[in-house]
Amino acid sequence: MRLFIMTFAVSVILFAGVWSVRAAEPQSGADGQAGGAEAITGQDGAPMVLVPAGPFTMGNNEGLPAERPEHVVTLDAYAIDRYEVSLQLYRKFLQAARYDAPPTWDDEAAETVGDRPAVGMSWEDAAAYCAWAGKRLPTEAEWEKAARGTDGRRYPWGPMQPFVDIANYNRGVWVSEAITLVSVAGGVEGMSVRHGLKAGGRSPYGLHHMAGNAAEWVADWYDRTYYGKSPDKNPMGPANGEKRVIRGGSWADLPVALSASSRVSAEPGFQDRTIGFRCAMDAKK
User: What is the pTM (predicted TM-score) of this model?
Assistant: First the structure.
């Protein structure tokens, strides 16, 4: 894993606009838990899902120390991207905002396999894209609720360990976007699906690749002990810190990192081909 730290002048274009809302078929999790009732199109054209307000269990008492203690968190309604931001969408941002591409950016890959997740972005790069699209990075709590729903499941699809047909993980060394990564809309076909996992690797709200493929930046500063002192409603993370939180695990990780409660972190300027992101936005009152 290589470390690239660069400082870019952020050129952010903010758009005014409204959501386009349409009815969507609810997705079912491994236990039949219904998914989001509304689908939303963001200003970047990316499909989003409305996650309803309410409580969920965050953390894992059987996980690593940073995942403890389990605690009930209540969130306001919000929308979150159904898919990881793709190479195609990030290329559109680079061109429209005249933003500097990360060191590992491959423009040819963005043209030929544009459905793969955009990776190699720093936290600042991810935040700049979301602002350009009229959105923001999800909070850590928003990310976890979207990944595991309200039944406390270990993985987005349920309690069972990952399989290669529903999650992209443990791939070893990087080869290329085309070979190492999979489509942001993938993870819904294969042996696991045929044998009863009807929603494939999707979360209870119908989000794809909340485990594996690209690990994802979220908005919060990282504090290993934050769960012991966080508010029980709409936690925003620590006021400051040295590192930002990364969630979901990547194509390079072992199954333990794919848990919906797993937390890792890196300095905001860190850039690596294992890390991408997705965006969120507040629900209209």
Answer: 0.87
Instruction: Tell me the domains of the chain and their CATH numbers.
Output: 20-282 (3.90.1580.10)
Characterize 212-229 residue by residue with b for buried, 16 or more Cβ atoms within 10 angstroms of its Cβ, and e for exposed. bbbbbbbbbbbbeebbee
Cα separation, 171 vs 175, in Å, equals 10
Per-residue pLDDT tens, the chain, 285 aa: give them: 433 333 333 333 333 333 333 333 334 433 334 444 467 888 999 999 999 999 999 999 999 999 999 999 999 999 999 999 999 999 999 999 999 999 999 999 999 999 999 999 999 999 999 999 999 999 999 999 999 999 999 999 999 889 888 899 999 999 999 999 999 999 888 767 766 677 889 999 999 999 999 999 999 999 999 999 999 999 999 999 999 999 999 999 999 999 999 999 999 999 999 999 999 999 986
